[in-house]
Structures are given as structure tokens and as C-alpha cells.
Write a structure and sequence with these properties.
The protein is mainly beta and about 850 residues long. The protein is built from 9 helices and 44 strands. The strands form 7 sheets. It has a 19-stranded mixed sheet, with helices on both faces. Strands 1, 2, 3, 4, 5, 6, 7, 8 and 9 form a 9-stranded mixed sheet that branches. Strands 11, 12, 15, 16 and 17 form a 5-stranded antiparallel sheet that branches.
Amino acid sequence: MNIKALNIIGRFHLLLLAVLMLTATGCSDDKDTIVSARYGYVQFKLFKKASYNKAASATKELEYLGEAEKMRIVLVSNEDGSEITQTVTLNPIGKDAELGLRSEKIQVLAGNYKIVGYYLYKIVGQELKEIIGGAPAQTINLEVAEGGLTVEDLTVDVAERGKIKLTLKKNMVQNKSVDNADNFEFKSVALATVVIENQFTKVKTTYTKIPVKYKTVVEDNGSIYAIAVSDSAFTVEGGNYKVYSYELYDKSKRFLEADKVVSNSAFSVADNKVTEVSVAVNIYHSAAYIQDYIALRKIWEALDGANWSYDDLQYPVGTNWNFNKDIDLWGQQPGVDVDSKGRITILNMGSFGPRGRVPDEIGQLSELIILTLGTHSDRIGGNMVEQWGAQVTTTRKEEWRNDYYNRFIKRDVRADFSEPLQKAFELKGNPVVKPELKNGAGRDAGVGTLTNGITGVSKEISKLAKLQQLFIANGKFVDFEPGTSFAKMANLTDVELYNCPSMKSFPLALVTAPNIELLNMANNPQIPGSEMLDGLDKLAKAPVGAKLQVLYLRNNSLETLPASFSNMKKLGKLDCAHNQIKTIPAFGTDINLVQLNMEFNLIEVIPAGFCGFEDIENFTFSNNKLTKFPNIFDANTVFGMSSVDFSNNQITEFEGGDNFKGIYCKSVNLAGNRLKSFPGILFNKNSRIGALLLSGNGMEEFPEGALEGKFTYMLETLDLTFNKLSKLPRDFSSVTLPYLYGIDMSHNRFASFPTQPLNIGYLTVFGLRNQADANGNRIMREWPNGIGAVPSLRALYLGGNDLRKIDDKISPNIRIFEIKNNPNISIDLSAVCPYIKAGIYMLIYDPSQDIRGCDYLNLD
């Protein structure tokens, strides 16, 4: 075989050692000479010529230095001509064999030697396969010193190879070169297939689906850009290259884009060096999401964006948008959400204080689902739109629809019951639901309170075919521009035009919308009632009227409602509270509302056939001018209601007389009316009522027979406070009211303790505070001896009376006992003092009272 001489450069004379083995040709037979010889060591290091001598022009004998696993070295003594041949193992000097190999040490006699040949082998099975060998091109002499080590560097013609690490960087391109170039967002890239090309040989090398990690970089000047970095390094033959093309995938290995690299991408690979290679990923200005971001900036500029300052709870106060970053990052702004392709889906601007007209660029945002230019929650936080992100599900939409109702309309009618009876609800395991006030804030921005200065919206909004929810609130909005039509916006279901004091008329563009299901026009009293009525009438008569499910009209100037509401067959929630409504039409029994709120109006009569009651839960007409309880319900229906509230009217009687049909309802509130006698007609007509509130009617009698009825036993809670009752009927007993749980008769005229309720086995809470005559004198002095024997009684409220010396033993079963404001009381509490000390007995008292048997109490 014709073996090219190995180039051996330099010679490093260090320490010399002895030969481990001598061949037969150079061996001495003189044993004394061998014994007296002195030895040294020699070791060889192999390097790639290209990396060892940068000026050298290597020819390729080996593809990889690491292929060599053994080396045979042939030495000749310059002193006696003897030849030494030794085969040794080669090991990497460092972690990578391509950086160099080191041989085992060879023991030789001290002296001067010449290298006459060496051979490299690869281990194949049990044999050594020679891969390269021959004589050095130049003479190399070695001086081996006694007891020393001589190290000699050798170089081998091995192909040059270095490593590359890939980083994806964005390259903005004006013109789109591939059809799918706008189908991904840079931050969604998780895997990349990259092709590089050798510029001399034109050979292409492909690196398939390399994992990359997205990261943003902030420069010293605050500018932000993004890259995607691969942690892997790849071995490449030395030479000049360019990045040819790429394919991109997301984390699910879904294909995103493939394109050629159009920017300068040349790079060089040097032997045993790591080269950082930038892969220029094309980002096209024509891409839809880039066009979204350009439109976003123009919208920001048109709405005085430079002076924006966030004023709500989702982000730090004073936050603004930032465009000092790569254009494809412009969509990363507070209040902006994008989908997996980078398209803007949610735009929430109201709380930043925008001012002016929303420009034509709004029409570019064709993937927009929610547009928020202020909402009813601008001043109380908890804006769910900002919390959702791009995922707007049916459940989340329903949450938003309920948000206004739950914050500002929904009310537990039981909150009007007395304090003791609210404790009864709690003890029974169904406490009164208190209204939520977020972070101590008020109920909302309030009529006329502004949080932004938006005056209008371009008619280009008509292009947003995917828009589902449009919120405009608390700004200077006047109306939609002439020519605005929602006819092609089939997905638009929720619209809020809330507290817009500059809006002087009903926005008729709404009539063109085909599928609005929720419309919130609360807090717009500046619109004349007649104009609001006319607009609502047009809305009800249009096709959209049949689609409406929720209509909020609170705090307006309506004086009546259009009869055309009978077209709204799907209407479930109607809120017309705080208007000036005097009369209402009959919508028809096929309009089955779920919640109706008509409080704080001027309504005198509710017509027959006003609405159906198959699904109704809460029916509220409090604070109107009704003089009769309407005969619109039916106790015999199978559809029970949750609450009916007719409090604070002028009701003196029940409409229909003997034809009154009764009512089926868990809680009925008739407080603050003018019923002079307990309304026995409710129970005589077989009403099914769980809790009845009759406080503040001025009732003077509770007639015999008032509790006669088939379903009287269902009554569990009765509030008779602030009336003029002085006695209860004989049939107020465990027979008629076996499940009565709580009763409060405070602020009446009982001179003697009404003991009838004490016979009821379920009675848990009993209130009898502040009994006084017409002149305000305390009249209740009697103590009901044996009251502790009532088995279920847990709370007894007797404050504000004139109880005096009490000889009765106080029961420890009563865990809440109120006796405060009884100035002449004298009572021994020794029976319950241990419970008071243990914290399981609540005594409500005055420190000045004569209370004995419990030194634990704080008494004067």
C-alpha cells in the first residue's frame, strides 16, 4: 500500500525514560549491561494538523481523529542502530477526541532515538485495522533522559470540523414569498428544521426538528426583541456555508411554515471551534397579524396613547402600552390578547383613559372577539375580560353575562328580615347572601362618572364579523357613525352601552344586529324617555327582538315599556329599576321571565297577563305605588318562585278578593306597606310560603283563622317587627305552624309574653325586643318562666323591654341570649357562666345591669 508520509512537526525534548521492550535486532546479550542500564519514558500526542498549525494546508487522510484507537511506533537508536517497536492505546486528551489524543507512556533506555515510522489502527472485533501509517516526512530525533519523560507532538491530516449552534432571529420582509407565511406567531416556534449549504461543494446538510426556546431580550435602551435559541451544538466539516432554508413547528410538532432564507446568512466553520449561526426567519409585513399590530399602534396613537395611564386593578396604576420593540411583539400589550396565529382576539382599552374616535384601523382586526371601550366594572376591578386571555368559552361568556346582574341587581330578599331572623337563616344552614363589594370600592362608576374620553367608533367596526361582545361605557360616546351596520355581525351577542352621558338618543345601529342576546343600556338617564321607548320598540319589532334574552335598563328615564316586548319570546332577565315608569303593558303569559326587577318606579297597577311564571325566580316591584297585591300568581302552579318583593308600596288589600289565587314562593316581602291586619288571605288561599316579611305595616291585629290553609305548615320564618300587634291568635300553634324555625315580633305592643310560639318544637330563634305602647312606654315586664324547656330554642332576643327580677333558671341550651337595655333587670346567670367562659354562649348585655353568678363578665 502506498502510504503518504505522516507530517510530524516539531520536537519537544523533555525527560527520557527506558524502553519497555526491545526488538531482537537491538538487544544485547550482556546481562550485566542490561542490569546496569538506565531508563526513561516517551509519550506521544496526536493533533489535527489544521487546528495545530493554522498556517498549514491540510490534506484529508482521516475523516475523524477519534477513529484512531491504537498507535504502533517504530524507533531506531542513533547510538547503536537498534530498533524498537511498540503498540500503545490512544485516549482523548479532553472530552472530545477531535481536540487531541494521548498515547500510553513507552519505557525505553536512556539515549537518542529517531522516529522511523508510526501507524494508526482502529479496533475491529478482535483485530486491529490499519487506517493510516508510514514514515515521517522529516527526521524527528528524541532525547530520552534517565528517569525523565519526553513528550512529542505529532499531527495528522484529518478533515477540519467545528461545531455550530443555531439561533432563530426575525428578519422583517416587506413582500410575502410563501402562501402560509402569516400562519404562525414567532413565539409559538418550538422546533426547527434547518438546512445549510456548503458554498464550495453545494452539498446541503439538514438538521431535523431541533428544539428551540423562545426568549425576549431587553437592550440597555429599553428596546425589546425576541429570539429562539437551540442549546444543541452540531458537528460540521470546516468550510464556508450559508443557511439555505428552514421549517418551523410548534410544540405539538404541528407544521407552521417553511421558507428559504432571503437575508445574508453566510458563516464559516473553523476546526474545533464553535460558531454561532443566525437563522433569519422571515416575518412579513403583509402577514395578517403584523397588519393587526400596525393597526393596533395607529389605534393607540389616534386615542392619545402617549398619555394613557391605566386606572383599574388588573395592572399597575399608570401602565401604558409599549411599542419600543420588534414589530411582531407589538401585540404583547396589557389589555390585548392574541390567538395562536398572533391575531388580536381581545382588545380592552377602557381603563387606560383613551380619548377620541376609534379610527378606521379597527376594521383590520378581523379576528376580534371582544372589544372593550369601558365596562360596568371599570371602578371596582375583577374585569373578567382581562382575566380570560384568548380563550372565550361559552361558560366564560355566561359568567360575564351574570357579572352585572350579580354585582348590581341580584339581591337576597332575606336581607330585609330582622337581624335575629338572619341569624335563623344562618343556623339553618342557608345564610343570607351579602352583596359583594370588591376591594372596598363602590358599586360602579356611577351615573355621569367618566373613566375614558372615547367619543365614537369608526363605521369600519361593521367589518368585525367574528366580534361576539362589544362594551362601551363610562366615556363620551355619542353614537355610532352614520352608515354603521351590524347586519353582517352574526356572532355579536353581547352589547353594553353603559353610562354614556353624551349619548342623547337610542343608537339605532343596534336594530340592524341579527343576534344580540344581551343588551345593557343602564345608567343613561340623559336619553329622553320617549326616545328610549321608541328605540326599544324598534328593537323589539326587528328580528333581533326575538333573540334578546337579557335586557338591562336600570337608571334611565322611561315612563312606560313598549307593548312590542311581547315579541321577545326568549327574554329571561329584565331590569328596569330606577326609572319613572308609571304604567306597564301586558307582555303575555308566553314571556316567561327568570328575573324581573322593577323597583323604584311609579307603577300603580300590574295588569293581568303581564308575563308568565313558569321559570321565574325573582320578581321585584318594591318601592312603587301599588295599592293592591296583584292577583297574577297561582298557588296551585308547579313552578315555585325563589322570591317576590312588594315591599315599600302602599298595599292595603289583595286584588281579586275571594278570587285571589294565592302564591307559591320561598320568600315573600311585604314590608313597608299598609296592611292593618295580618293577611290571612295568603294562607286561606293555600299559598305556599317559606319566609314571610310583614315588617313596618302598622298591623294592629292578627285575627283568628288567619292561618287556616292547606299549606300553612310550610312557613318557617315570620317577621312581624315594627307593627302594632298586642296578641297572637289561638291557632298560632304547633298544629298550624309545626316547622316554624324563627319568629321576630320586636317593636310591637305585647304587654304580656306571647307564649304560643314556645309550643312549637322546631322554634330556634325568638325575637321580642322593644315592646312599647302608643306613647313609647315600655310595657313588657313579664318573664316566661320555663322558657328554657323549649327543646330547640337557641337564640332569644329580649332587649329593650322592662324585665325586672327573674327567678327562672337560665337554660344553657339558649346559646344567644340578649337582655341589654332592660335597665331594671336582676338575673342570676350561674347556670350558664361556664358556657360563657368557654366561648360557646353569647350574652348580649349592658355592664350596668344587675347580673349575678358570673364574675367572668365585665360589669360595672
